[in-house]
Amino acid sequence: MKTEELFDDTENNEHTPAERAAAASRSTWVSVVVNLALTAAQVLAGLLSGSQGLVADGIHSLSDLIADFVVLFASHHSKKDADEAHPYGHQRFETGASLALGALLAAVGVGMLWSAVHKLEDPASVQRVHVIALWVAGGALAAKELLFRYMLAVAKRVKSSMLVANAWHARSDAASSLVVGVGIIGNLAGYPILDPIAALVVGLLVLKMGWQFGWEALHDLMDRSADDHEVEAIRETLVSSPGVIGVHDLRTRKMGDMIVVDVHIEVAGAISVEAGHDIAVEARRRVLSRHRVLNVMTHVDPRRATAPDAPSAVAAAQ
Questions:
Q1: How far apart are CA 313 and CA 318, in angstroms?
Q2: Confidence of residue 90 (pLDDT cuts 50, 70, 90)
Q3: Do residues 105 and 127 lie in contact, with contact meaning Cβ atoms separated by under 8 Å?
Q4: pLDDT value at 249 more than 80
Q5: Which ranges are annotated Acidic residues under compositional bias (predicted)?
């Protein structure tokens, strides 16, 4: 799922970059506390109960903890104002963080797959687990699902793809805890091999999630345009501006969770340069106030009126 598909409106004039960074910081610190507790509980319980799946889930929680600090780092830098070296600001720190989260998830997934396959190669080494592992897996599932819902709500409210990535990282943990719980139940029912199989499935889920977020972030770093719905909304704002007759060559590119716009606007050819400039300034102001747009570069084109009954060039030549 593309992160912009979660943003269900095309205008946003409620949250400044500073407010978005503050929301990211608050939600991420909540995640830090939850993941720190889960990592300790899952790894310890997994080692004591003999559950490889629970240990793998604990390592996944540890990767969430590392990801949280990546988000905090990116949030701190992305809210910096533009400077001489970064005239468009630092919003792409968020995109870089999403790419780092994707790479981290992929690496963790590969590690889990390697460990699970190694265990499956020697089924005799798989031991029965203690029932405490099931209780810990159930508690982790509930905690991660609640964390996901909280973080996704914050991400949608402030429209942050970085927070969306981190929220779905928490959801992948919830899914992995569910799989681990099923594996533990199977182990307790007399099928020990189901525990490393659960660890294998967790690894695949984590790897898939890492690929998705890394691929999305990579496209944004290559100046991917905003989605069609948002581009059309920006076009409508420009066309509805006083004095604007038409719009063409509208181009957009992602800058973190903001958008940079280049556009040609058409004005009456008979007006003065100053009047055309004022029309462009007002059109730009409207776009900046109504949409998640960082900057609008406008080029003013004159539209010359043609008299319908004017003689053609060929007739004039005759």
A1: 9
A2: low
A3: no
A4: yes
A5: 1-11
